[in-house]
Amino acid sequence: MKRIALAAAILAATAAVPASAQQGPKPEAEIRYRQSVMNVTGRAMGPMGAMAQGKAPFNAAVAQKNSALVETMLGLPWDSFGPGTDKGAPTRADLKVWKETAKFKQAAEAAQKAAANLAAVAKTGDEGKFKAAFGELGKACSSCHDDYQLKQPRS
Amino acid sequence: MKRIALAAAILAATAAVPASAQQGPKPEAEIRYRQSVMNVTGRAMGPMGAMAQGKAPFNAAVAQKNSALVETMLGLPWDSFGPGTDKGAPTRADLKVWKETAKFKQAAEAAQKAAANLAAVAKTGDEGKFKAAFGELGKACSSCHDDYQLKQPRS
C-alpha cells in the first residue's frame, strides 16, 4: 500500500509539470517560463534597488538573500529563447534575439556575471561595494533590455 | 560622470521592478508573482519526476540542482497570498486559501519542509533516498493542490 501511495504521489507531482519540460519546448510554455523567471528576478531586485538608492536602510541579510536569488534566476531562462520560441504567446522579446544569437548570448552572460559578482559582494556585507555591484548589474540588465526587450508585448 | 552613469543604471534597474514591490501588494502583481514562482517550481520538478519514475537515469547533479531550486522557490510565494489578493486577475487559488488561513499555512509549511528534506537528501547522491524524498514532496504538493487549487482559473 505504501509503495502504491508513493507511486501515485510521484505521478501526481509529475502530472503538474508542463508536457514541454518532458517532451521538448512548446513555444507558449517556454515564453511563460522565461517571463516567470524574469518576474521572480524583478521582485528580488526591488528591495536591493531601494537600498542602492538610499530609499531603504542597507540590510546585509536582505542583500544576500535577494542577490543569491537573482543569481539563481539568471541561470535559468536562456535555453527558453531557443529556435521556434520567438512566437506562440504575447512576448516582449524582440525578434533580434533570434537574429543576433551570439550578441544576445553575450548580453545574457554579462548579466549572469554581474549577478554572480553581486551575490559574492553581498556576502561580505560591505554597503559601498554592494551599491557599486548592484549598479553594475543594473547596467547589464538595462543594456540587454534596451537591445532585446520591446516596450509592448507582441503576439 | 561615472557616478551619474551608475545612478542612472540603478534607477533603470529599479524602474523595471513592479510598483507593487515598493508600495505594497497590488493583487494582480501578487497573483502573477505566485504563478511565476509555481511555474518555475513546476519546471524544476520535471526532471526529478522523470528520474523518480525511472523514465530518466538518476543523475545526482540534476537532482541536487533542481531540488535546491524547488527549496528556494517554495520559500517565496506565501506572502503573496495575503489579504486582498484573492482576486484581481485569473487565478486557480481556491477562496478557501483566505478562509482557512491556518490550515493553508500548515500545508505550505509541510511542502517547504518536504522540499528542504529533498534538497538535503539530494546532496547525499543516494538514489533510493532521493526517490522516497521526492515522493514525499509530491504528496505534500498534491495535498495542498487538492485542497486549495481549482481545476480551472476563476476571474
Strand content of chain A: 5-15%
CATH superfamily of chain A: Cytochrome c/b562
Question: According to CATH, what is the class of chain A?
Answer: Mainly Alpha
CATH architecture of chain A: Up-down Bundle
Question: What is the fold's blueprint, element by element?
Answer:
Two copies of one chain form a homodimer.
Chain A: H1 2-15, H2 19-23, H3 27-52, H4 60-73, E1 91-93, H5 96-99, H6 101-124, H7 127-148, E2 149-154
Helix pairs in contact in A: 3-4, 3-7, 4-6, 6-7
What are the salient characteristics of this protein?
mainly alpha, two-stranded antiparallel sheet, elongated, 155 residues
Describe this entry's structure for a reader.
The structure is a homodimer of 155-residue chains. In chain A, helix 4 (60-73) packs antiparallel against helix 6 (101-124) and helix 6 (101-124) packs antiparallel against helix 7. Chain A has 155 residues and is mainly α. Helices cover 70% and strands 6% of the residues of chain A. Chains A and B meet through helix 1, helix 3, helix 4 and helix 7 of A and helix 1, helix 3, helix 4 and helix 7 of B.
Quick recap of the structure?
The structure is a homodimer of 155-residue chains. Chain A has 155 residues and is mainly alpha-helical. The first copy, chain A, has 7 helices and 2 strands; from the N terminus they run ααααβαααβ.
